[in-house]
Amino acid sequence: MPGGRASESDKIEAGGLTLMLRILLIFSFSLLSVGCWNKDYQEPGRVEIDRKSTELVIPSNFLRVWGAAQAALGKFPILKKDAEGSLAKGYMVTDWIRGKSDTLFHGFDVNRVPYVIRYKLFVYVTGENRFNQVRVSIRVVEQYLDDMVTAGVDARGGVYTWVKTESSSLKENAILEQIKKLALDPKFKVGE
User: Fold this and answer.
1) Residue 58 zone, left/alpha/beta (φ > 0; ψ -120 to 50; rest)
2) At 112, is the pLDDT very low, low, confident or very high (cuts 50, 70, 90)?
3) SS3 for 83?
């Protein structure tokens, strides 16, 4: 390059580099555009089901129903439990239990995948011993796991977050039926 002029080989090399940079820039822009594109499909979301009862009156005495409730919830991690037999009142609270949603799905067409959920059960047993009528009610706090973009929430330290949702009532009703079955079964021994 005598006299400050660029040789033909330098011009070709610079042109090739510029072309490579242009291609790389176009490729990067197209990759970013596709990655940030909104989904134009609708996920199945919530499937509607018939709601079940979350409260039940059992024709038995308090101690028997309380024992049946403890047996029915024996497979779950219990966080708190307290009963006052003389007042015929008791409650149990479970720790978070993981499972699959009954009503929330994501995926395409028939390939629906249930959301991962976690829930806490709040079980209340109250009744009158003299009337042999015991009311059992179950309330649930349920959350599903979703990414923060789909859930539409702010980032709180991770990509995934727990989002509160309404329970399907199927879990509660199944436990109520199990408590009723145990309490009314003459072979069921309280405390075993």
Assistant:
1) beta
2) confident
3) strand
Q: What are the residues whose beta carbons fall under 8 Å from the beta carbon of 8, sequence distance 6 or more?
A: none
Residue 56's pLDDT band, with cuts at 50, 70 and 90, is: very high
With a cut of 80, say whether residue 2 has pLDDT above it.
Answer: no
Show contacts of 83-86: CB within 8 Å, 24+ apart. Answer: 83/125
What is the spatial distance between Cα 8 and Cα 3, in angstroms, rounded to a whole number?
Answer: 14
Tokens 């049946």 correspond to 68
The total of other beta-carbon atoms located within 10 Å of residue 77's CB is: 10
Distance CA 121, CA 173 (A): 12
Structure tokens at 150: 């789909």
Copy the structure tokens of residue 170: 């199927």
| CATH class (in words) of the domain with range 45-184 | alpha beta
